[in-house]
Amino acid sequence: MILGIETSCDETAAALVSADGEIRANVVASQADLHARFGGVVPEVASRRHLELVAPVVREALDTACLGLGDVDAVAVTQGPGLVGALLVGLSAAKAIAWARGLPLIPVDHLHGHVASLFLGSDPVDPPFLCLLATGGHTMLLDVHDHRSFTVLGETIDDAVGEAFDKGARLLGLGYPGGAALDRLAREGDAERFSFPVASVPGLDFSFSGVKTALLYAVRGLTPSELQRRRADLAASYQRALVRALVQRTEQATEAGGFDRIAVVGGVAANSELRAALAGAALAPLELCGDNAAMIASAARYVNPVPRPDYLALDAYASRQAA
Ligand code: KG4
Ligand code: ZN
To answer: What CA–CA distance (Å, rounded) separates 119 from 128?
Structure first.
């Protein structure tokens, strides 16, 4: 039984996952409301909130699973990438629990965690496959050749697609984080009303900064009442451009790499238009798209545990580590 802890951004999460990938508990406490008035995650505020929430969230996960710390065999925790202050809260909590109970600690990479959201449940998706990882911080195409590791085939050279969704939502007055709200508004609009081209960059990389600027100019060109009237069309057209860019690159990579199977993970994998466009792909379950600790515990099953006391020296990292 693995206890997973995730605090890389603005979700405080704890989960219990068995060796065969059964989720016994998956608790996520979102801080989104706390950060909404700032229009984005404030790192210092996030760290302090993680500190308040981490123990209660772990307790709730154990209660949900009807388990005690005595039933836990290892503690898994996100080491990075993410906000260092936020990560350190989870890492310190995990070290403390592991130390107190004489357990090994398993440091997990957050991106590996998103991929491992596919390895859970009774019908897991097993490698090899091509994986589109689309979150608020990353946009990547991965060659997932085994459960332990992957090779990056392409990634964004500027904004992540989730960031593009959030910035677009903000321009349309949808609040933070706006990806899901933009998705909902887009359903009421006509995606052909505005044309938002997405820059094509060489290879299998992505670029989303230009389309965001295009939306900014479109919004600036409208009067407040026009904007109000055409908001849904703007959302639908903007989303169409983002999804098209993701789908095109994914199809290109599938062909180039000769992949038989495609998978999609990360917060943006919850997007309804993307899910419909890649309906043949293995899509992460909706409840495991956004940040959670079940995916961290899942990945931990394929990472070597660090014995006591060596794990006390582990530090968090902010940016993606080279494989
Ligand atoms: O994976 P995630 O929870 O956190 C990171 O690791 O970044 O992804 C969060 C991102 C945010 O940008 C959020 O707006 C976006 O996922 N998102 C969506 C949808 N639901 C969440 N974007 C588009 N459509 C959605 N339905
Ligand atoms: Zn994430």
So the answer is: 12
Looking from the CA of residue 110, the nearest atom of ligand 1 is 6
Q: How far is the CA of 61 from the centre of ligand 2 (A)?
A: 20
Residues with CB under 5 A from ligand 2 (ion): 135, 291
C-alpha dist (Å) from residue 12 to 26, 132, 227, 267, 315: 11, 24, 36, 15, 19
Q: Indicate the CATH number of 2-118+290-322 among 3.40.50.2300, 3.30.420.40, 3.30.70.3280, 1.10.260.40.
A: 3.30.420.40
- Closest ligand 1 atom to residue 138 Cα is 7
- The pLDDT tens digits along the chain (323 residues) read 999 999 999 999 999 999 999 999 999 999 988 998 888 899 999 999 999 999 999 999 999 999 999 999 999 999 999 999 999 999 999 999 999 999 999 999 999 999 999 999 999 999 999 999 999 999 999 999 999 999 999 999 999 999 999 999 999 999 888 999 999 999 999 999 999 988 889 999 999 999 999 999 999 999 999 999 999 999 999 999 999 999 999 999 999 999 999 999 999 999 999 999 999 999 999 999 999 999 999 999 999 999 999 999 999 999 998 76
pTM (two decimals): 0.97
User: Do the first three CATH levels of 2-118+290-322 and 127-284 match, i.e. the same topology?
Assistant: yes
Q: Is 107 in the pocket of ligand 1 (CB under 6 A)?
A: no
Q: If 0-12 CB within 10 Å is exposed, 13-18 middle and 19+ buried, where does residue 152 land?
A: middle
**CATH 3.30.420.40 is right for the domain spanning 127-284:** yes
Cβ(95)–Cβ(103) under 8 Å? no
